[in-house]
Amino acid sequence: MQEERVAGKNDVAETIRQGIVDGELKPGQSIGSIDATAQKYEASVGATRLAFQELVQQGYLVARGRAGHFVADTIPDDPVAALPRRLSTDRLESIEEKLDDALPLLQDIIKRLDRLERRQK
């Protein structure tokens, strides 16, 4: 027996985001209720709610209280602008430290690969 695939938060968010970017969903257009959207994409209500929250944070949707969620009048044209806006300074510093730690290792790997490539010629 084959299991039916159920969409997750990322599937729902990406499908809606792509519809907005492709112009299938127009600025100001209602997305529909969370329940209806969950049913449409065969996703859980919780996953759909999280997808809507993510799209609001990224600037693709606006929440209008009980009226629901609507496509934003202007959408992000810069992929960086679509990143979650809640990254804390501590989190960014932690990421920067990890990148700084990884840089010497990556440089060493590149040097070794260059040496190996020269030997093979």
Instruction: Provide the CATH topology of the largest domain.
Output: Arc Repressor Mutant, subunit A
The value of Rg in angstroms is: 21 Å
Tally of helical segments: 4
Q: CATH homologous superfamily of the largest domain?
A: Winged helix-like DNA-binding domain superfamily/Winged helix DNA-binding domain
Number of DSSP E strands: 2
Q: Beta-strand level of the residues, as a percent range?
A: under 5%
Structural class comes to mainly alpha
Order of helices and strands: HHHEEH
What proportion of the residues is helical, as a percent range? 40-55%
* Unreliable stretches: 1-5
CATH architecture of the largest domain: Orthogonal Bundle
Number of domains: 2
Largest sheet: 2 strands, antiparallel
Give the neighbour order of strands across the main sheet.
1-2
